[in-house]
Amino acid sequence: MPPECIGYSDQTHWMIAIRDHQDRDAFAKLFDHFAPRLKGFIMKSGTGAAQAEEIVQDVMLTVWRKAAQFDPHRAQVSAWIYQITRNRQIDITRKESRPVPEELKEDPGTEADASQVLGLEQEAAQLRQALANLKPEQREIIEKAYLGELTHQEISAQTGLPLGTIKSRIRLGMERLRHELKDLKQ
Amino acid sequence: MSAVTHHIPDAMLAAYAAGTLPHAFAVVVASHISLCDHCRVALAAHQTVGGVVLEDSDAVPVSSSLKDNLFAQLDAPFVPEPVYDRSGIYPGPVMEALQGRALKWKTLGMGVRQDILTEDAHGSVRLLYIPPGQAVPDHGHNGLEMTLVLQGSFSDETGQFGVGDVEIADEDLEHTPIADAGDPCICLAATDARLRFNAFLPRILQPIFRI
User: pLDDT tens digits for A109-132?
Assistant: First the structure.
């Protein structure tokens, strides 16, 4: 493991190894960790076991193929896989492609910033704790919202989750990219 | 980009991340995020919450063949999904909705033009072209309307909207957007129902123009 990556979560390690080296051992570990959770996540919204497995396979294949887009300065592995999963579920169930924003472009030579990656992991861990500390009924509403069971009218802006600090951290990760891009243009 | 002052509300970003926003609105949200780092950050925060929900989901064992099937496909050739880059004032998601076709402006009268990008039972999304000083006809809404400015600016009873700004109007808002002086105002507008025009176009023409 490169010395600058010490302290990263297992998931981030695996994903970087997949992204940079098409590492199949790391992909096997990522699969063992996420595939059963993905199946549980997909079945929660009423999908049957067989179709859920099809979607899991589809999502994990997309993770492998789109690994180059993973940026641990801006996203947790679980957040990145979450969005791929919801996109694939919509593509499959609605038979329409979900509109996605333009990707931010990163220069391949951009130096990794371990403190930013670790900072984001810590913020995400705190967010996870905050979610665990919510009252069960509050937590259930949030789960429903992110499982895609509530319309935007039903999602209250007041979810009770403190998103301010994680936004600050993600913003730093994005500014790093913008800064590098600006340097490139000069 | 820092000039963007009218953003996407949090609940709508959460619904966009979860995929419950109707397609027409999702095109506007994806286009706005392409122009606005503030909302790109907020979306990433919602994706983080979604990731926590995924991470904390009860693990359900997968069948043994799943992993083998998956690994057998890793080297299979595949066609990458097309990437739609911005073209001039039009963000990637608009280019995606155009599916490679050229713009086809249709005149609505008074110099106002439109090009309908997509339309289905849940709503429609279109480009609107409004000459400087021209009012978009006074209209109320049967449902929700989202308007993203791509060029120029407009003002109405609620404020001024420049490039990247998004106005969200519901049934309660009776407003008259007027394109400001300068460049013609070009907007991306999504609705989940037909607009009710109070003047400008007789109601009977609405089905023809599909407004």
Answer: 678 899 999 999 999 999 999 999
Contact B46 A146 (CB under 8 A): yes
Task: Note whether B134 contacts A: Cβ–Cβ < 8 A.
Answer: no
| CB-CB contact of A8 with A72 (8 Å) | yes
Domain that holds residue A35: 3-106+113-185
Give the residue on B whose Cα is nearest the Cα of A91.
B19
Q: Give Dmax over CA atoms of chain A in angstroms.
A: 54
Q: Specify the pTM.
A: 0.91
- Complex confidence, ipTM: 0.93
How many domains does the structure of chain A reveal?
A: 1
Contact A35, A60 (CB under 8 A): yes
B1-211: what CATH class?
mainly beta
Q: Which of A152, A36, A143 is nearest to B53 (CA)?
A: A143
Rg of chain A over CA atoms, in angstroms? 17
The pair phi, psi for residue A166, each rounded to 5°, is -70, -30
What is the C-alpha to C-alpha distance for residues B137 and B133, in angstroms, rounded to an integer? Answer: 12
CA distance B100 to B87: 11
- Interchain CB distance below 8 Å, A148 and B34: no
Return the half-sphere exposure (C-beta side, CA atoms, 13 A cut-off) of residue A19: 15
- Indicate yes or no: CB of A147 within 8 angstroms of CB of B18: yes
Helix, strand, coil percentages (3-state) for chain B, rounded to 5, are 30, 25, 40
B207 to chain A nearest CA, in Å?
25
What is the separation, in whole angstroms, between the first and last Cα of chain A? 34
